[in-house]
Amino acid sequence: MGTDHSIKKIILFDGVCNLCNASVQFIIKHDFKKVFYFASLQSAFGQSQLTKCSTSTNIDTIILIKDEKFYFRSDAALEIAKELSGWWLAFSVFRIFPRFFRDFVYNFVSRNRYWWFGKTDQCYLPTPELTTRFIS
């Protein structure tokens, strides 16, 4: 992939988290318009973006970079759902809940994700036809 990441919608995810890897695969399956690109938070690109958005390098959230703006936790998840094909747009209704409540639920799952879903020794490896959507 080229170096012009500013016009893309990029999802940064925890590459060793089984739940996160499954979420990436789910997004790919439902992203019929192919608007999302992906990078693990552990990658050089992911680490540079964490520095750019002035957040810690603690990998406890999904991050969406859209129109050069950073979305975290439940805001990222809801923004991603808006772009997916099918009834996933309906998840936008959760915006009626205040962010602190949505993020409380998000953080609960995030804190327990390794315990519930496990970890993998390596980041998700895309198929050859999907490699152009992954940034290293």
Index terms:
single chain, 136 residues, alpha+beta, 4-stranded mixed sheet, 4 helices, 4 strands, globular
Domain tally: 1
Radius of gyration: 14 Å
- Tally of individual helices: 4
β-sheet strand percentage: 5-15%
Kindly state the number of beta strands.
4
Distance between the termini: 9 Å
How do the strands and helices of this protein lay out in sequence?
Layout: E1 9-13, H1 18-30, E2 36-40, H2 44-52, E3 63-66, E4 69-72, H3 73-83, H4 99-117
Parallel strand pairs: 1-2
Antiparallel strand pairs: 1-3, 3-4
Give a description of the structure.
With 136 residues, the chain is of the alpha+beta class. The protein has one domain. It has helices at 18-30, 44-52, 73-83, 99-117; strands at 9-13, 36-40, 63-66, 69-72. It has a 4-stranded mixed sheet with strand order 2-1-3-4, with helices on one face. The longest helix is centred in the C-terminal third of the chain and has 19 residues, at 99-117.
In short:
The protein is α+β, with helices and mostly antiparallel strands and 136 residues long.
